[in-house]
Amino acid sequence: MPTRPLHRAGTQLTIVDAHHHLWDLASGRYPWLQDAYHGSAFFLGEYQTLRRNYLPGDYRRDTSGYRVVASVHIEAERSRMQQVDETRWLHELRDCTGIPSVVVPHISFVQANRDEVLAAHMAWPRVRGIRSKPVTARSPQENVTGQPGTMQDPRWLEGLAALERYDLSWDLRVPFWHLADAAEVAAAFPGIRMVVNHTGLPLDRSEQGLSNWRQGLEALAANPNVYIKLSEFGLAGGRWDADSNQRIIRDAVAIFSPDRAMFASNLPVSSLSAGFPAIVDTMLDALADYDDQAIAKIFAHNAIAFYRIYG
């Protein structure tokens, strides 16, 4: 692996973190963190260490020594009865601490009061997009096509279409076996900016699994309105496979180009398998053949433009 130039050392990079979470278990309801524990069902396995507050001070501690100049908060699965409460709380945090820079809240595209909740989110100035997870199959062998809440559901598509009226982006989080379905949606809505979360979740690191993942990404990348977040490379059981992760990063950037890829930490969830320094170093090692302009786009400029981070 080529030696990384000193001026591209992680601690000297300007970083915009395009995906992280915060939560206060005393002021909000987070069922996945506060209710019955289901570690075996979580895609990364045991997550007991996440069942505590994670606030701006914790985020600053985890990223200390790095030039993180802005961040994007992605909804943290707070109670779906408190969707707008989360947005309000994050704006209050921003006013007090400077974190986060902008907010991507949650709304279900099929909930009965969808339009009312969407309008309530828009009352807050730092809202930039929506994350709404469609119903997905639990494995590549299961078929849920056309079921309520899936990406083929007319009601769900109607909800997605509403984002364009507000100039909101969509954070797309589906397992790799649904990437081709998402590509069809992206083609149908060219006016909506979309960004693939967690590198398309390439959880199957077999050659066939990675081939299927790449085909899905290629279908998505054919749509110029789609970007990708280079994030969450951890595997179940806290496994961090640096060589495999670098391969995934290189493939994803080759498919989307440095113009449509952005760095994201996924803190604190990513801490189940790696700390911030390991994430940054793995990314830089994978991108060692790219020039400084490309690195700057991936680590900062693309997220600034996509999420309209003005200050």
What's the arrangement of strands in the largest beta sheet?
4-5-6-7-8
- The multimeric state of the shown protein is single chain
Largest sheet: 5 strands, parallel
- The CATH topology name reads TIM Barrel
Radius of gyration: 18 Å
Instruction: Based on the coordinates given, report the CATH architecture.
Output: Alpha-Beta Barrel
For the secondary structure, the number of strands is 8
Spell out the CATH superfamily: Metal-dependent hydrolases
Number of domains: 1
Average predicted confidence as pLDDT:
95
Helix content: 25-40%
Strand fraction equals 5-15%
Determine the N-to-C terminus distance: 37 Å
Structural class: alpha/beta
How many distinct helices? Answer: 10
Run of helices and strands: EHHEHEHEHEHEHEHEHH
CATH class: Alpha Beta
Instruction: Return residue spans where pLDDT drops below 50 for at least 5 consecutive residues.
Output: none
- The rough form would be described as globular
What descriptors fit this protein?
311 residues, alpha/beta, TIM Barrel, 5-stranded parallel β-sheet, 3-stranded parallel β-sheet, 10 helices, 36% helix
What does the model show?
This protein has 311 residues and is α/β, with parallel strands linked by helices. The protein has a single domain (10-306), classed as Metal-dependent hydrolases (TIM Barrel, Alpha-Beta Barrel), CATH 3.20.20.140. The protein is 36% helix and 12% strand. The chain has helices at 31-34, 56-62, 83-97, 114-121, 154-165, 179-188, 207-221, 242-256, 276-286, 292-306; strands at 14-20, 67-74, 102-104, 129-131, 169-172, 194-196, 226-230, 261-263. The chain has a five-stranded parallel β-sheet with strand order 4-5-6-7-8. It has a three-stranded parallel β-sheet with strand order 1-2-3. Helix 7 (207-221) links the parallel strand 6 (194-196) and strand 7 (226-230). Helix 6 packs parallel to helix 7. It is globular, with a radius of gyration of 18 Å. Residues 16-309 form the Amidohydrolase-related domain. Belongs to the metallo-dependent hydrolases superfamily.
